[in-house]
Amino acid sequence: MVPPNPAFRRVRVRLSLLLSLGLLTLLPWSSARDPQGLSPAKTLVGAAAGREGTRNRAAEHPVPALPPSPFTYLHGARPRPLARPDERILFRLDGTAGPQTFTLRQLQALPTVRYATDQPQLKHEGVYEGVPLRDLAALGGFAGRDVRVYASNGFVATIRAHDYLHEPIMLAYRMDGQAIPVLQKGPLTVVLPRRPARFHTPAYSAAWVWFAVRLGPVP
Ligand SMILES: Nc1nc2c(c(=O)[nH]1)N[C@H]1C(S)=C(S)[C@@H](COP(=O)(O)O)O[C@H]1N2
Ligand SMILES: [Mo]
After folding, report:
1. Residue ranges of region Disordered (predicted)?
2. Which residues, other chains included, contact 87 with Cβ-Cβ below 8 Å and sequence gap of 6+?
3. Ligand nearest to the backbone CA of 210
4. Is 1 within the bounds of a domain?
5. How much is the pTM?
6. What atom in ligand 1 is closest to the CA of residue 153?
7. What is the distance in angstroms between the CA of the first residue and the CA of the last residue of the chain?
8. Is 174's pLDDT higher than 70?
9. What is the pLDDT of residues 6-58, one digit of tens each?
10. How many domains are contained in the chain?
């Protein structure tokens, strides 16, 4: 990572302080609506849980500027369509400036990758399409921090910044050219590429989060 210019760093710290004040005012809103907030988190290979207090976390972790994405995209960001009243909200991004919600069509308008990988739980080789966690984290203003993916069944997994920044781990919305049925762990499911090989070891099995509904930075 590029060492931060001290002047920019000061500006960022001030900005993050403002952001965390803003977030504090949002807290009652999010906890009231989120029955999964208390679920135990599955931690992959020693994430930084409990290393420090919860106050001013954003100020302690200024997010460095992201270098250009190293991934090959099927398409980049497209204009985000408005949610129609008949569409379901499938996903929530807990951005540092507040939550953003997405219907399937709105997710499909985000930068998208496509690759074949072996889904270890289904024992199925599928061609998956979806949004890299890196792009979602960048959209939420927390790229570079470890992230948590929350599932509709209360399951939570932590995915390390090093993994999602360098590899196109995706929130998949399509498999083999079709919407992903619930029986195949859809409609939204996290998939990891074939390489590196560690993604297909037991240490990473919790990262293949099915029924994904929410993404945010590790608090
Ligand atoms: N939504 C959701 N995703 C999840 C889990 C879960 O309980 N709920 N368990 C994780 C863990 S720890 C493992 S080992 C695998 C288990 O998948 P399986 O039950 O289909 O074998 O899914 C991962 N993804
Ligand atoms: Mo597991």
Report:
1. 49-70
2. 103, 104, 105
3. 1
4. no
5. 0.76
6. 1
7. 22
8. yes
9. 444 444 444 444 444 444 333 333 333 333 333 344 444 333 333 333 444 55
10. 1
